[in-house]
Amino acid sequence: MNSAKSQGTALVTGASSGIGAIYAERLAARGFDLLLVARDEQRLEAAASKLRDEHGVQVEVLKADLTQKDEVLKLEQRLRSDSSITLLLNNAGVASDGLLANADMDQLERLIQLNVTSVTRLASAAAASFAKAGRGTIINIASVVALFPERFNATYSASKAYVLSLTQSLNAELNGTGVQVQAVLPGVTRTEIWERSGIDASGIPAEMIMEAGEMVDAALSGLDQGELITIPSLPDAADWDAFVAARLVLAPNLSKSKAATRYK
């Protein structure tokens, strides 16, 4: 049962630290009850206690490793069956370092499970539940490397490009249902993801690194403004609009009965 002032329950994955933990605090301040999901139960419980005290909302903690299919399925079922959930934040993710040719493929498979498969399953469950209710919000955390894959390693960049594409397609599918969809594309953000992934971020210029709180506040402002795609660092939204317009110019010519003359 939700709190008296609640806007429903926000399910936040990767909620124990960084972007997820800040989103949890901001959403609690907005009147959402919370279902916090991560592997580190101790940190989740500490965060939950603080959020209950400071914001008077209900907070449930669920320990889950979303690289494990059975644990994703349990969370998916919760999304499908719990009508109190009104917002899904697909935030849990991991980066990787190094070249694809030299990669630990088991590690990359876990990355794909977390960054792609679990995001897809949870978004599907939320879409079904929220569309049936005629309301709800799905936020998927992608990355600017979805737009500039050459600047980072192949698998992580591809996984975030998938999240961007998934969000755009899902938004079209949910048109008219009352469900809001957003993809957030942060640049370099000061979180634990770098050290966890074995990446040395010390060489990145300070002017390229955004504090996580500023990133989340910008993303929520974008959500309030109804943006489908929010790029917190981008100074001029017209640049994104031009990018989208250029893509749409291609659309009528992407599938034709004859090959282009340059191939003949």
TrEMBL record:
Record's keyword terms, sorted: Oxidoreductase
Protein name: SDR family oxidoreductase
Gene3D superfamilies for this protein: NAD(P)-binding Rossmann-like Domain
Taxonomic superkingdom: Bacteria
Organism of provenance: Pseudomonas nunensis
Every Ketoreductase domain range: 8-184
Family: Belongs to the short-chain dehydrogenases/reductases (SDR) family.
